Protein backbone atom coordinates (compact mmCIF):
# COMPACT_ATOMS: atom_id res chain seq x y z
CA UNK A 1 0.00 0.00 0.00
CA UNK A 2 1.44 3.38 -1.05
CA UNK A 3 0.28 6.51 0.73
CA UNK A 4 -0.96 9.36 -1.42
CA UNK A 5 1.16 12.48 -0.68
CA UNK A 6 -1.99 14.56 -0.09
CA UNK A 7 -3.23 12.05 2.46
CA UNK A 8 0.21 12.02 4.06
CA UNK A 9 0.12 15.81 4.29
CA UNK A 10 -3.31 15.67 5.95
CA UNK A 11 -2.05 13.13 8.51
CA UNK A 12 0.99 15.27 9.38
CA UNK A 13 -1.18 18.36 9.75
CA UNK A 14 -3.57 16.55 12.09
CA UNK A 15 -0.75 15.18 14.22
CA UNK A 16 0.98 18.56 14.45
CA UNK A 17 -2.07 19.83 16.32
CA UNK A 18 -1.50 17.13 18.97
CA UNK A 19 2.14 17.67 19.88
CA UNK A 20 4.42 20.66 19.62
CA UNK A 21 7.21 18.90 17.70
CA UNK A 22 8.27 18.59 14.07
CA UNK A 23 6.72 15.53 12.42
CA UNK A 24 7.87 13.62 9.35
CA UNK A 25 5.99 10.89 7.48
CA UNK A 26 8.16 8.42 5.53
CA UNK A 27 7.08 6.04 2.78
CA UNK A 28 8.31 2.43 2.68
CA UNK A 29 11.61 3.45 1.04
CA UNK A 30 12.48 5.65 4.01
CA UNK A 31 11.82 8.88 2.08
CA UNK A 32 9.95 11.78 3.68
CA UNK A 33 6.72 12.44 1.74
CA UNK A 34 5.15 14.90 4.19
CA UNK A 35 6.63 17.02 6.96
CA UNK A 36 5.98 20.03 9.14
CA UNK A 37 9.45 21.10 7.98
CA UNK A 38 8.90 21.28 4.24
CA UNK A 39 12.63 21.54 3.51
CA UNK A 40 12.97 17.88 4.51
CA UNK A 41 10.41 16.51 2.02
CA UNK A 42 12.18 14.21 -0.42
CA UNK A 43 15.08 13.41 1.91
CA UNK A 44 15.63 10.07 3.60
CA UNK A 45 17.67 8.46 6.35
CA UNK A 46 18.75 5.09 7.68
CA UNK A 47 16.78 5.36 10.94
CA UNK A 48 13.48 5.19 9.05
CA UNK A 49 14.72 2.32 6.89
CA UNK A 50 15.71 0.35 9.99
CA UNK A 51 12.27 0.93 11.54
CA UNK A 52 10.71 -0.48 8.35
CA UNK A 53 13.03 -3.49 8.33
CA UNK A 54 12.71 -4.40 12.01
CA UNK A 55 9.10 -3.23 12.50
CA UNK A 56 10.29 -1.61 15.72
CA UNK A 57 10.58 1.94 17.00
CA UNK A 58 14.05 3.38 16.39
CA UNK A 59 15.34 6.03 18.79
CA UNK A 60 17.90 8.52 17.56
CA UNK A 61 20.14 10.39 20.01
CA UNK A 62 23.82 11.01 20.65
CA UNK A 63 24.39 7.32 21.37
CA UNK A 64 22.33 6.09 18.42
CA UNK A 65 22.85 8.30 15.38
CA UNK A 66 22.01 7.49 11.76
CA UNK A 67 23.05 9.06 8.52
CA UNK A 68 20.70 11.91 7.55
CA UNK A 69 18.68 11.64 10.75
CA UNK A 70 17.97 14.15 13.47
CA UNK A 71 17.37 13.34 17.12
CA UNK A 72 13.96 11.90 17.86
CA UNK A 73 12.13 8.64 17.23
CA UNK A 74 10.95 6.79 14.12
CA UNK A 75 7.85 4.65 14.68
CA UNK A 76 6.70 2.03 12.15
CA UNK A 77 3.05 2.38 11.13
CA UNK A 78 1.25 -0.93 10.58
CA UNK A 79 -1.67 -1.77 8.31
CA UNK A 80 -2.84 -5.35 7.76
CA UNK A 81 0.32 -6.60 9.53
CA UNK A 82 2.57 -4.73 7.12
CA UNK A 83 4.66 -1.59 7.61
CA UNK A 84 3.07 1.01 5.32
CA UNK A 85 4.85 4.12 6.62
CA UNK A 86 7.09 5.48 9.37
CA UNK A 87 6.13 8.45 11.52
CA UNK A 88 9.08 10.47 12.79
CA UNK A 89 9.02 12.91 15.71
CA UNK A 90 11.95 15.32 15.95
CA UNK A 91 13.21 16.31 19.40
CA UNK A 92 15.07 15.11 22.41
CA UNK A 93 14.45 11.42 22.96
CA UNK A 94 13.24 11.88 26.52
CA UNK A 95 10.66 14.44 25.34
CA UNK A 96 9.25 12.66 22.29
CA UNK A 97 9.31 8.98 23.33
CA UNK A 98 6.13 9.31 25.47
CA UNK A 99 4.26 10.41 22.31
CA UNK A 100 5.44 7.44 20.24
CA UNK A 101 2.63 4.96 20.82
CA UNK A 102 -0.09 7.63 20.73
CA UNK A 103 1.15 9.06 17.42
CA UNK A 104 1.52 5.55 15.98
CA UNK A 105 -2.09 4.63 16.84
CA UNK A 106 -3.46 7.93 15.56
CA UNK A 107 -1.59 7.54 12.26
CA UNK A 108 -2.85 3.97 11.83
CA UNK A 109 -6.41 5.13 12.47
CA UNK A 110 -6.10 7.94 9.91
CA UNK A 111 -4.60 5.57 7.33
CA UNK A 112 -7.33 2.99 7.89
CA UNK A 113 -10.03 5.65 7.57
CA UNK A 114 -8.47 6.81 4.32
CA UNK A 115 -8.20 3.23 3.07
CA UNK A 116 -11.83 2.55 3.92
CA UNK A 117 -12.79 5.73 2.07
CA UNK A 118 -10.80 4.64 -0.99
CA UNK A 119 -12.38 1.18 -0.91
CA UNK A 120 -15.87 2.66 -0.65
CA UNK A 121 -15.19 5.05 -3.51
CA UNK A 122 -13.78 2.25 -5.65
CA UNK A 123 -16.82 0.08 -4.89
CA UNK A 124 -19.20 2.93 -5.72
CA UNK A 125 -17.39 3.67 -8.99
CA UNK A 126 -17.46 0.03 -10.10
CA UNK A 127 -21.15 -0.34 -9.23
CA UNK A 128 -21.93 2.84 -11.18
CA UNK A 129 -20.08 1.47 -14.21
CA UNK A 130 -21.93 -1.82 -13.96
CA UNK A 131 -25.35 -0.18 -13.61
CA UNK A 132 -24.55 2.19 -16.47
CA UNK A 133 -24.01 -0.81 -18.74
CA UNK A 134 -26.91 -2.92 -17.45
CA UNK A 135 -29.45 -0.23 -18.29
CA UNK A 136 -28.40 -0.21 -21.95
CA UNK A 137 -30.04 -2.52 -24.46
CA UNK A 138 -26.73 -2.97 -26.27
CA UNK A 139 -23.72 -3.47 -24.03
CA UNK A 140 -20.51 -5.46 -23.92
CA UNK A 141 -21.56 -8.71 -22.22
CA UNK A 142 -17.97 -9.68 -21.44
CA UNK A 143 -17.25 -6.32 -19.82
CA UNK A 144 -20.46 -6.54 -17.80
CA UNK A 145 -19.53 -10.03 -16.63
CA UNK A 146 -16.05 -8.80 -15.64
CA UNK A 147 -17.38 -5.91 -13.54
CA UNK A 148 -20.01 -8.15 -11.96
CA UNK A 149 -17.36 -10.72 -11.00
CA UNK A 150 -15.24 -8.00 -9.36
CA UNK A 151 -18.24 -6.97 -7.27
CA UNK A 152 -19.30 -10.60 -6.67
CA UNK A 153 -22.71 -9.89 -8.17
CA UNK A 154 -24.60 -12.82 -9.66
CA UNK A 155 -26.37 -11.52 -12.77
CA UNK A 156 -28.31 -14.75 -13.19
CA UNK A 157 -30.69 -13.76 -10.41
CA UNK A 158 -34.14 -12.38 -11.33
CA UNK A 159 -34.22 -8.66 -10.52
CA UNK A 160 -36.38 -5.63 -11.24
CA UNK A 161 -35.37 -2.02 -11.64
CA UNK A 162 -36.55 0.99 -9.66
CA UNK A 163 -35.84 4.51 -10.90
CA UNK A 164 -36.17 7.38 -8.43
CA UNK A 165 -36.18 11.05 -9.39
CA UNK A 166 -36.82 14.37 -7.74
CA UNK A 167 -40.30 15.52 -8.75
CA UNK A 168 -40.17 17.75 -11.81
CA UNK A 169 -41.80 20.71 -10.03
CA UNK A 170 -38.44 21.19 -8.26
CA UNK A 171 -36.50 23.93 -10.06
CA UNK A 172 -33.21 23.28 -8.26
CA UNK A 173 -30.70 20.69 -9.42
CA UNK A 174 -30.66 18.13 -6.62
CA UNK A 175 -27.44 16.65 -5.25
CA UNK A 176 -28.39 12.98 -5.13
CA UNK A 177 -24.91 12.13 -3.83
CA UNK A 178 -25.86 13.42 -0.40
CA UNK A 179 -28.25 10.45 -0.20
CA UNK A 180 -25.55 7.86 -0.83
CA UNK A 181 -24.64 7.04 2.77
CA UNK A 182 -28.29 6.58 3.75
CA UNK A 183 -29.09 4.42 0.74
CA UNK A 184 -25.99 2.36 1.36
CA UNK A 185 -27.14 1.75 4.93
CA UNK A 186 -30.64 0.77 3.79
CA UNK A 187 -29.19 -1.74 1.34
CA UNK A 188 -27.03 -3.49 3.93
CA UNK A 189 -29.79 -6.04 4.58
CA UNK A 190 -30.38 -6.58 0.85
CA UNK A 191 -27.20 -8.46 0.04
CA UNK A 192 -28.08 -9.35 -3.55
CA UNK A 193 -29.53 -5.98 -4.57
CA UNK A 194 -27.49 -2.94 -5.63
CA UNK A 195 -27.92 0.69 -6.66
CA UNK A 196 -26.13 3.64 -8.25
CA UNK A 197 -26.66 7.33 -8.94
CA UNK A 198 -26.90 7.95 -12.68
CA UNK A 199 -27.12 11.54 -13.93
CA UNK A 200 -30.26 12.93 -12.27
CA UNK A 201 -31.75 9.73 -10.93
CA UNK A 202 -31.27 6.87 -8.50
CA UNK A 203 -31.20 3.47 -10.21
CA UNK A 204 -31.84 0.36 -8.11
CA UNK A 205 -31.67 -3.27 -9.23
CA UNK A 206 -33.56 -5.24 -6.60
CA UNK A 207 -33.53 -9.00 -6.13
CA UNK A 208 -37.02 -10.31 -6.92
CA UNK A 209 -36.98 -12.14 -3.58
CA UNK A 210 -36.89 -8.73 -1.87
CA UNK A 211 -40.19 -7.61 -3.42
CA UNK A 212 -41.96 -7.57 -0.06
CA UNK A 213 -39.36 -5.20 1.35
CA UNK A 214 -39.83 -2.69 -1.48
CA UNK A 215 -42.64 -0.51 0.01
CA UNK A 216 -40.71 0.08 3.24
CA UNK A 217 -37.47 0.69 1.31
CA UNK A 218 -39.00 3.30 -1.00
CA UNK A 219 -40.81 5.00 1.87
CA UNK A 220 -37.49 5.23 3.71
CA UNK A 221 -35.73 6.69 0.66
CA UNK A 222 -38.59 9.15 0.18
CA UNK A 223 -38.22 10.33 3.77
CA UNK A 224 -34.45 10.62 3.34
CA UNK A 225 -35.03 12.73 0.23
CA UNK A 226 -37.32 15.10 2.07
CA UNK A 227 -34.93 15.38 5.01
CA UNK A 228 -31.69 15.73 3.03
CA UNK A 229 -32.73 17.21 -0.32
CA UNK A 230 -35.83 19.04 0.98
CA UNK A 231 -37.80 17.73 -1.99
CA UNK A 232 -40.11 14.80 -2.70
CA UNK A 233 -39.07 11.91 -4.89
CA UNK A 234 -41.08 9.82 -7.34
CA UNK A 235 -40.34 6.16 -8.13
CA UNK A 236 -41.07 4.01 -11.16
CA UNK A 237 -40.90 0.22 -10.83
CA UNK A 238 -40.23 -2.10 -13.78
CA UNK A 239 -41.11 -5.77 -14.09
CA UNK A 240 -38.91 -8.66 -12.94
CA UNK A 241 -36.37 -9.80 -15.53
CA UNK A 242 -34.68 -13.20 -15.38
CA UNK A 243 -31.04 -12.16 -15.86
CA UNK A 244 -28.62 -9.30 -16.44
CA UNK A 245 -29.03 -9.45 -20.21
CA UNK A 246 -32.67 -8.39 -19.75
CA UNK A 247 -32.35 -5.86 -16.91
CA UNK A 248 -32.39 -3.01 -19.44
CA UNK A 249 -36.04 -3.80 -20.17
CA UNK A 250 -36.97 -3.31 -16.53
CA UNK A 251 -34.98 -0.07 -16.48
CA UNK A 252 -36.86 1.33 -19.48
CA UNK A 253 -40.17 0.28 -17.92
CA UNK A 254 -39.23 1.98 -14.65
CA UNK A 255 -38.38 5.19 -16.55
CA UNK A 256 -41.74 5.13 -18.31
CA UNK A 257 -43.49 4.50 -15.00
CA UNK A 258 -41.81 7.39 -13.18
CA UNK A 259 -42.52 9.73 -16.11
CA UNK A 260 -46.19 8.71 -16.03
CA UNK A 261 -46.29 9.26 -12.27
CA UNK A 262 -44.86 12.75 -12.77
CA UNK A 263 -47.75 13.34 -15.15
CA UNK A 264 -50.57 11.93 -13.02
CA UNK A 265 -49.27 12.94 -9.55
CA UNK A 266 -51.01 9.91 -8.02
CA UNK A 267 -48.78 9.09 -5.05
CA UNK A 268 -45.03 8.59 -5.16
CA UNK A 269 -44.67 5.06 -6.59
CA UNK A 270 -45.89 3.81 -9.97
CA UNK A 271 -45.58 0.20 -11.12
CA UNK A 272 -45.22 -0.35 -14.83
CA UNK A 273 -47.78 -3.14 -14.66
CA UNK A 274 -50.40 -0.77 -13.19
CA UNK A 275 -50.10 2.08 -15.69
CA UNK A 276 -53.25 1.25 -17.77
CA UNK A 277 -53.60 4.28 -20.12
CA UNK A 278 -50.01 5.18 -19.35
CA UNK A 279 -48.84 2.06 -21.17
CA UNK A 280 -50.23 3.51 -24.40
CA UNK A 281 -49.27 7.14 -23.85
CA UNK A 282 -45.71 6.47 -22.71
CA UNK A 283 -45.06 4.00 -25.53
CA UNK A 284 -45.99 6.44 -28.31
CA UNK A 285 -43.11 8.11 -30.10
CA UNK A 286 -42.93 11.80 -29.15
CA UNK A 287 -43.03 12.79 -32.81
CA UNK A 288 -46.26 10.82 -33.29
CA UNK A 289 -47.81 12.29 -30.14
CA UNK A 290 -46.89 15.81 -31.27
CA UNK A 291 -48.33 15.04 -34.70
CA UNK A 292 -51.73 14.18 -33.17
CA UNK A 293 -51.70 17.27 -30.95
CA UNK A 294 -51.02 19.48 -33.96
CA UNK A 295 -53.62 17.63 -36.04
CA UNK A 296 -56.34 18.30 -33.46
CA UNK A 297 -55.45 21.77 -32.20
CA UNK A 298 -53.58 23.20 -35.18
CA UNK A 299 -52.33 26.72 -34.50
CA UNK A 300 -54.87 27.59 -31.80
CA UNK A 301 -53.46 29.83 -29.03
CA UNK A 302 -52.25 27.93 -25.95
CA UNK A 303 -54.61 29.92 -23.73
CA UNK A 304 -57.61 28.85 -25.81
CA UNK A 305 -56.56 25.20 -25.74
CA UNK A 306 -56.23 25.48 -21.95
CA UNK A 307 -59.81 26.77 -21.77
CA UNK A 308 -60.99 23.89 -23.95
CA UNK A 309 -59.16 21.49 -21.63
CA UNK A 310 -60.98 22.85 -18.56
CA UNK A 311 -64.36 22.42 -20.22
CA UNK A 312 -63.55 19.01 -21.64
CA UNK A 313 -62.24 17.71 -18.28
CA UNK A 314 -65.36 18.81 -16.42
CA UNK A 315 -67.54 17.24 -19.10
CA UNK A 316 -65.52 14.02 -18.74
CA UNK A 317 -65.57 13.90 -14.93
CA UNK A 318 -69.36 14.00 -14.97
CA UNK A 319 -69.73 11.37 -17.71
CA UNK A 320 -71.15 13.80 -20.24
CA UNK A 321 -73.68 15.43 -17.89
CA UNK A 322 -74.12 19.02 -19.07
CA UNK A 323 -75.95 20.02 -15.89
CA UNK A 324 -73.35 18.70 -13.46
CA UNK A 325 -70.44 19.91 -15.58
CA UNK A 326 -71.94 23.39 -15.74
CA UNK A 327 -72.49 23.36 -11.98
CA UNK A 328 -68.82 22.52 -11.34
CA UNK A 329 -67.66 25.37 -13.60
CA UNK A 330 -70.28 27.81 -12.25
CA UNK A 331 -71.75 28.18 -15.73
CA UNK A 332 -75.23 28.10 -17.19
CA UNK A 333 -76.02 24.88 -19.06
CA UNK A 334 -76.35 26.78 -22.32
CA UNK A 335 -72.94 28.38 -21.80
CA UNK A 336 -71.29 24.97 -21.34
CA UNK A 337 -73.06 23.66 -24.44
CA UNK A 338 -71.83 26.66 -26.41
CA UNK A 339 -68.26 26.01 -25.27
CA UNK A 340 -68.48 22.35 -26.25
CA UNK A 341 -69.77 23.49 -29.64
CA UNK A 342 -66.83 25.88 -29.89
CA UNK A 343 -64.40 22.98 -29.31
CA UNK A 344 -66.10 21.14 -32.15
CA UNK A 345 -65.98 24.10 -34.53
CA UNK A 346 -62.36 25.02 -33.78
CA UNK A 347 -60.90 21.49 -33.81
CA UNK A 348 -63.28 19.59 -36.09
CA UNK A 349 -63.88 17.04 -33.33
CA UNK A 350 -67.19 17.07 -31.44
CA UNK A 351 -66.86 16.04 -27.74
CA UNK A 352 -70.43 14.69 -27.81
CA UNK A 353 -69.64 12.16 -30.55
CA UNK A 354 -67.94 9.07 -29.11
CA UNK A 355 -65.38 8.65 -31.91
CA UNK A 356 -64.44 12.33 -31.78
CA UNK A 357 -64.42 12.28 -27.98
CA UNK A 358 -61.78 9.50 -27.98
CA UNK A 359 -59.52 11.52 -30.32
CA UNK A 360 -59.91 14.69 -28.26
CA UNK A 361 -59.25 12.83 -25.01
CA UNK A 362 -55.99 11.33 -26.30
CA UNK A 363 -54.91 14.66 -27.84
CA UNK A 364 -55.43 16.49 -24.54
CA UNK A 365 -53.50 13.78 -22.66
CA UNK A 366 -50.65 13.83 -25.16
CA UNK A 367 -50.41 17.61 -24.95
CA UNK A 368 -50.12 17.61 -21.18
CA UNK A 369 -47.78 14.60 -21.19
CA UNK A 370 -45.38 16.21 -23.66
CA UNK A 371 -45.30 19.36 -21.57
CA UNK A 372 -44.48 17.31 -18.47
CA UNK A 373 -41.62 15.61 -20.30
CA UNK A 374 -40.25 18.96 -21.44
CA UNK A 375 -40.41 20.25 -17.88
CA UNK A 376 -38.43 17.27 -16.58
CA UNK A 377 -35.83 17.33 -19.37
Detailed description of the structure:
The chain is of the alpha+beta class and about 375 residues long. Helices cover about 50% and strands about 15% of the residues. The strands form two sheets. The chain has a five-stranded antiparallel β-sheet, sandwiched between helices. A five-stranded mixed β-sheet has the order 7-8-6-9-10. The protein is elongated. The two termini are about 45 Å apart. The model has no long low-confidence stretch (mean pLDDT about 90).
Which descriptors apply to this entry?
single chain; 377 residues; alpha+beta; five-stranded antiparallel beta sheet; five-stranded mixed beta sheet; 14 helices; 10 strands; 51% helix; 15% strand; elongated
Helix vs. strand class: alpha+beta
How many alpha or pi helices?
A: 14
Helix content: 40-55%
Largest sheet: 5 strands, antiparallel
Write the element-wise H/E pattern from the N-terminal end onward.
HEEHEEEHHHEHEEHEHEHHHHHH
Radius of gyration, CA atoms, in whole angstroms: 33 Å
Strand order of the largest sheet: 2-1-5-4-3
Distance between the termini: 44 Å
Q: What's the total number of strands?
A: 10
**What percent of residues are in strands?**
5-15%
Low-confidence stretches are: none
What is the overall silhouette? elongated
Amino acid sequence: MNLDPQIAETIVTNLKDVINHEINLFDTTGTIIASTDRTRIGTSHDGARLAIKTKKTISIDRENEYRGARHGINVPVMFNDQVVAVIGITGERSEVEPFGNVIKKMTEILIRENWDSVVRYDHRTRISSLVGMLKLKRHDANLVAYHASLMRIDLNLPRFCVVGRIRSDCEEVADYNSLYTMLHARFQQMRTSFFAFMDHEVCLFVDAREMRALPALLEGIRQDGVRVLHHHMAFGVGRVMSSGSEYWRSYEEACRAVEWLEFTHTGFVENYEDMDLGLIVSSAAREDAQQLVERVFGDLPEEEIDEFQTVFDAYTRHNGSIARGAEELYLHKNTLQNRLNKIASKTGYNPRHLDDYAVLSIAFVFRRYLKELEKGA
